[in-house]
What we know:
By secondary structure, this protein is of the alpha+beta class. It folds into two domains: 6-149, ph1033 like fold (Roll), CATH 3.10.590; 160-195, no CATH class. It is built from six helices and five strands; from the N terminus they run H-E-H-H-E-E-E-E-H-H-H.
Amino acid sequence: MVRAGEGGYLIDEFKAKNVVAIGWSDLPDLTSTATREALRTLLDQTYSEWSDVRRRIASGTIWKFITEIKVGDSVISYNPTTRSYLIGEVTGEYRRDEDVKDFSNVRPVKWTGSVDRDDLSKSAKRSIGAIQSLFMVSPEVWEEIQRLLNGERPAAPEITLNRKSRKRQKKPMNFQLRQCLRLIPTATKGPCSNC
């Protein structure tokens, strides 16, 4: 999963330019950055006002983006406007692209389809609803996405009943029964026409 910026504001640009991208655009071109330590040094120099923890997190995200994502890997990004996930395949290596506003560290992508968020199971939604800029989607979620892309119907909604939900279900019935009992004359004790 590669997020399209806060609130997904870059999703149209991702789609139009056939890319996924991450920020940290104040860094230079990272093509020749050979080690994670070299990347960390660049982050320390460029973002010295950040906390050490923040620079370490950025370092991990950037390193994964430029080295661990491989050509041919599947990729996903979320479009909050249409409530859908854009699905694609990485088609090239990391490159710097100043034309992608605020997010100049890019990977080229061929977009192959989309999946409505509402068609995913609750567990899949939770799994890919994380807020990180970049993360790995579990194999189970990818299988579900592939089934949807292949035209299979979404699974039936997951329903879990706990004590609270059972009590809530009983209350309307009890209320309705109480209302009916009020309508029944005391002498007859028979069911009313509303029951």
